[in-house]
């Protein structure tokens, strides 16, 4: 049974906010995660495509996450500045997905801009071919 | 005539240190830039290869930079924590190189770890194919 999601209104720093967002993704609290992004959020997978708006983000993420039986996003480094009105967070991650009984992994550097208390921009830098190959060998 | 490089011993924050490092690269102060990295620095172009040691870094960078008549690395966002003893800096950049009269561009997210007053790790995340194509169309 998944752990219950935790309220986000106690969070005062953009770094902690992004950490909570990722925890929600990992723990399959998808609705709670999407509550943390703005309605007009820009979601940019740099080498693939960018979309605008929470609905488009939900479409992309829900399809992909639904194919994974487990999700682990390991944060190797995370740095941030600003506050919940306007903050910038960058992290270095390995995003891992268990699919069909095998783990696939992708090395990523991500940028998150927090604006007016929500994630307004999420931009992930990675190598498209590494991602395609990882998916193909799952 | 290139601007003279500026002393780095007045810098007290890892973010400013990385900014100065990039300015040195842009202004063709290559030796000054390399003075800012540790002898055993890890230099990791994630989708291509990583090398260890300043000499290997110099080999890769000097060959590439020598092919460019101008270099501009635009920093869109940069965040950092820690101090000059141990600090972490991440930035989102567009690295631009003028080659054969044309500008080629690459979108990058970079991680720099400053340790004991020098850059000890520099890791750039980008899409390899985008880089290859940009070089091919120069």
Describe the structure.
Chain A has one domain (14-136): Nuclear Transport Factor 2, Chain: A. Chain A is 29% helix and 45% strand. Chain A contains four helices and six strands. The first copy, chain A, is globular, with a radius of gyration of 14 Å. In chain A, 33% of the residues are buried. At the A-B interface, strand 3, strand 4, strand 5 and helix 4 of A face strand 3, strand 4, strand 5 and helix 4 of B.
Task: Briefly characterize the structure.
Chain A has 138 residues and is of the alpha+beta class. In chain A, 29% of the residues lie in helices and 45% in strands. Chain A has one domain (14-136): Nuclear Transport Factor 2, Chain: A, CATH 3.10.450.
Query: Regarding CATH, which class of chain A?
Result: Alpha Beta
- Per the principal axes of the C-alpha atoms, what is the gross shape of chain A? globular
Largest sheet of chain A: 6 strands, mixed
Helix content bin of chain A: 25-40%
Radius of gyration of CA atoms of chain A, rounded to a whole number: 14 Å
Question: Could you spell the SSE succession of chain A in H and E letters?
Answer: HHEEHEEEEH
What key attributes describe this structure?
homodimer; 138 residues; alpha+beta; Nuclear Transport Factor 2, Chain: A; 6-stranded mixed beta sheet; 29% helix; 45% strand; globular; NTF2-like_dom_sf (chains A, B); LEH (chains A, B)
Give a topology summary:
The structure is a homodimer of 138-residue chains.
Chain A: H1 14-26, H2 30-34, E1 37-45, E2 49-52, H3 54-66, E3 70-82, E4 86-99, E5 102-115, E6 118-125, H4 128-136
Parallel strand pairs in A: 1-6
Antiparallel strand pairs in A: 1-2, 3-4, 4-5, 5-6
């Amino acid at each position: 049974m998944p752990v219950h999601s935790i309220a986000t209104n106690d969070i005062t720093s953009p770094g902690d906010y992004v950490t909570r967002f990722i925890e929600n993704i990992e723990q399959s609290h998808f609705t709670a995660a999407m509550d943390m992004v703005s309605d007009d959020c820009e979601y940019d997978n740099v080498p693939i495509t960018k979309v605008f708006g929470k609905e488009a983000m939900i479409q992309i993420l829900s399809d992909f996450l639904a194919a994974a039986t487990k999700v682990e996003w390991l944060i190797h480094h995370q740095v941030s500045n600003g506050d919940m009105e306007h903050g910038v967070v960058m992290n270095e991650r390995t995003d891992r997905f268990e699919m069909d009984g095998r783990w696939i992994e992708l090395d990523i550097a991500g940028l998150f801009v927090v604006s007016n208390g929500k994630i307004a921009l999420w931009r992930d830098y990675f190598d498209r071919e590494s991602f395609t190959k990882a998916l193909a060998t799952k």
